[in-house]
Design brief:
alpha/beta, Alpha-Beta Plaits, nine-stranded mixed sheet, three-stranded antiparallel sheet, about 35% helix, globular
Length: about 400
């Protein structure tokens, strides 16, 4: 090979794999001008050995070994039997039960926390129950993961008996696995990816937080609180014990921009890993759709690809309730974010808008003016429904889905 990831500029998912594999420290990893973690080549250090492209998902030559989600997966629906944990977790808490099993049985667990001091998501490695609790729940932000991969490599190289369970987005799992295989590391590792919508810009998140702060310190962010039920995306922002704000997605500016797909990472717009391919043992997510449309507690979609994936589900069997087995995969996939996203508004203009003193409400109103009438009517209906009592809201949504 005689290339580097500079040839893949504009396609970077920010997984951090190339940073770890480079033996010459010729790749820097930081937030770019659009507010996404991405890599850049330090040209004077690079010898164009091609190691970085050998672990990069965006290098098409690497994609011939991936599993096809529809053909190679076995789908079940499940949730934890622990009602307290079910209430605290995003969907059916299967990720939690797998991670808890790992901690109790000598595995180190890799997952994402929300760092309140830096106001970013970070991938970390944990080995005890207290630290494990911090990675519980979804974080709808791009996770800074370069240091975590370096830590994984250090741990596995120092001790071939160390076992890991690694959680991440599909692009992160791809990168982690490629690096580990490239370095010929043979430790026992279970790879678990999450159904992914794509990641929003930190320019949006930072502006949103500044509007939420109101000169007060934010102590905790819960991206998917179940105060209004599983189906209602609700963000909880805690400033102190007596002051918490709950905001439903239909009326929340961060979620509006997120679900409008107006400023996701460029690599997410037409991502094969998000849509149809996998490099994991299991993929987990919410089991959306008609089947569980009246369930307010949460159900996980568990898509098993490998023998190793099936074994870990069997090991947590006593702690979970399997609702249904051998479900046609399409029943789950058609309600996930597996479509191509189209650019609906100038990114250049949006960045200019964000950097002005205009608030997000005005920015959203401005760009939605260019959206199709059908989409704007749909948003209006969802907003109206969000004011209804929970049970009535769920019943009406269920009727629409039917």
């Amino acid at each position: 090979m005689n290339n580097n990831v500079l040839n893949l500029a504009g396609k970077c998912s920010g997984c951090g794999a190339c940073v770890t594999i480079c033996p010459y420290n010729a790749i820097e990893y930081k937030l770019n001008e659009e507010g996404f973690y991405a890599v850049n080549i330090i040209k004077e250090r690079c010898i164009k050995c091609g190691l970085c492209t050998s672990v990069c998902f965006k290098n098409i030559e690497n994609n011939n070994k991936l599993k096809n989600i529809k053909k190679d997966g076995q789908l079940i629906s499940a949730r934890t039997k622990n009602k307290k944990i079910l209430k605290e977790c995003t969907s059916g808490a299967i990720a939690y039960e797998i991670g808890k099993y790992g901690i109790e049985n000598g595995y180190k667990v890799v997952g994402t926390i929300y760092d309140v001091k830096e106001q970013i998501a970070k991938t970390i490695v944990v080995d005890n129950k207290e630290e494990f609790e911090k990675i519980k729940g979804s974080k709808y932000l791009q996770s800074k993961s370069d240091e975590a991969i370096k830590n994984i490599i250090k741990i596995t190289r120092n001790n071939s008996n160390e076992k890991l369970i690694i959680f991440g987005t599909p692009c992160q799992i791809y990168g982690y696995r490629m690096v580990i295989e490239k370095l010929k590391i043979n430790n026992e590792i279970i790879y678990i990816e999450l159904f992914c919508h794509g990641v929003p810009s930190y320019l949006i998140w930072n502006k949103y937080l500044n509007e939420q702060k109101n000169n007060e310190k934010i102590k905790k962010v819960d991206f998917r609180n179940k105060k209004y039920g599983w189906h209602n995306f609700t963000i909880k922002i805690e400033k102190n014990k007596n002051k918490c704000k709950y905001s439903k997605a239909e009326r929340d500016n961060f979620y509006k921009i997120f679900f409008d797909n107006i400023f996701l990472n460029k690599s997410c717009m037409n991502c094969k890993l998000r849509k149809e391919e996998s490099n994991a043992d299991i993929r987990l997510g919410d089991f959306w759709g008609k089947k569980y449309s009246l369930d307010t507690n949460g159900v996980s979609a568990v898509l098993i690809f490998t023998k190793k994936g099936k074994q870990i589900i069997d090991k947590i069997n006593s702690n979970i309730e399997i609702l249904e087995k051998n479900i046609p995969i399409e029943e789950c996939l058609k309600y996930q974010s597996v479509e191509n996203y189209q650019e609906k508004y100038s990114r250049t203009q949006l960045i200019k808008d964000i950097k002005t003193n205009e608030n997000l409400t005005k920015i959203i109103k401005q760009y939605r003016n260019d959206f199709p009438i059908k989409y704007k009517v749909k948003c209006k209906i969802k907003t109206i429904l969000s004011y209804l009592p929970l049970r009535l809201n769920i019943k009406i949504k269920s009727k629409f889905k039917s």
